[in-house]
Amino acid sequence: MSSFEMESKLDEDPSVDRSLELSGEQLQQLVSLVMSHLREFIDSLAEQPAWEFEGAASIARSVMEALPDKGTEPAVVLRRLFNELLPYGVNSAGPGYLAYVPGGGVPHAAVADLISGTVNRFVGLWNGAPGLAQMEVAVLRWFSDIVGYPATAGGFFTSGGSLSIWSAIVTARRCKFQGELSRGTLYTSNQAHHSVSKAAMFAGLPPENVRSISVDSAFRVCVDAMREYISKDRRDGFVPFAIVGHAGTTNSGAVDDLARLADLAAEEHLWLHIDGAYGGFFMLTERGRGLMRGIERADSITLDPHKALFMPYGTGCLLARDQSHLRQAHQLRGEYLMPGPDEEFFDLSDISPELTRSARALRVWLPIMLHGIEPFRSNLNEKLDLTELVAQRLRQLDAELDDRLEVVSDPQLTVVAFRLVREGFTDEQNDDLNARFRNAINASRRVLLTPTRLHGRYVIRICILSFRTHIDRVEACLEEIYRAARAV
Ligand SMILES: *Cc1c(COP(=O)(O)O)cnc(C)c1O
Fold this sequence. Notes:
By secondary structure, this protein is an alpha/beta fold. Helix content is about 45%, strand content about 15%. A seven-stranded mixed sheet has the order 3-9-8-7-6-4-5, with helices on both faces. Strands 10-11-13-12 form a four-stranded antiparallel sheet, with helices on one face. Helix 8 (about 195-200) links the parallel strand 4 and strand 5 (about 210-215).
């Protein structure tokens, strides 16, 4: 091909479509079309069912289509997205989502994503976007203050708690461990989220070297049992290097005795990581600070803003009491990267696993700048109060029923676990009864509750954490429980 022909191909061929750009006006039109759907979505959230599974498989299959050569009208694509694809599954944005660990997703954060996606600045290197990169440092400084960390602290945003815990364990391994990894051991409670074992697996530790320590009647790890296991392991030639404690377990919201864990970690020279993915932000409340005394002595802390800070999914973070430890574990540079900034500033990619990623801080910064932290705090206090109320009401209901309604875990944060116990039933029969009980509660679709196992038995959890869940939905949930308890 001559250079002339090449040019004509570049300039003139009308059959070649390169129209990826939107003018400012076209962008505004597209966003406004999206907005009309989102407006309806937001305004109808309270009426939307809490879940819908019927027909989900065929809708999911319909997505598996061939790569399209040509585009489709925005209105058609959006209608399909909002009307056909989105209504299935669990409605985790709605007020009836009392399953797993909710958060809701404050819409301001979605607006922040629109901004960061459009300006598409590079935050992995400070020079790429000093304002946005430093914003991440600033927001993590706020978080460090919330947990009581000193000026040496720092951290980074992750896509969630799982990757945060992974980086924490990699950092612990780097800072506290030498030798053959097959001998390394890590200590946590038998209530740990499975992401702890998964992180240890990613970090190269044999799965059986994660020691699951027993818990007390309130599901807090037995620190003495942990101490004994550590001594025994040392005698057997293992090399203990880290403890993972909990500021709110997923199962029951249990908060370990963090001060005693910090003492143990100090005595044994182990890294102490606190998994605060669910509960860490309760440090904003007085009750939370009372429960989590000692958290500031941990070497690192996982927080999940997409849970108790009500951010959209994809927002986790890791904090370290001494940021230089993160650098020690994560720093490695390519020759194509510009040299880092001077002493006052640094490249986020030097203290974290990722290079190119979105400006995650903006989605946290914007809502906090627009509201201040106060409404976040009062939402958390409201959820604590609502959970107390649920526990109280379940006890009242117990007195009115023929079956026993057992509150298996008293709320420490915002989880209550409960189960029906029918006289004369075996444990297995009671498990089946509770599975039916849960289905009967969820059947109205006003709420969605999920089960777990505590002391080996099937229990039903209520986790109140969405910023959209208030007293009216909690009353609705209790009504469904009353109704279902009499019906099963
Ligand atoms: C949710 C959760 C995790 C995992 O975090 P993801 O953000 O889901 O990856 C870890 N630990 C606890 C206690 C959690 O509640």
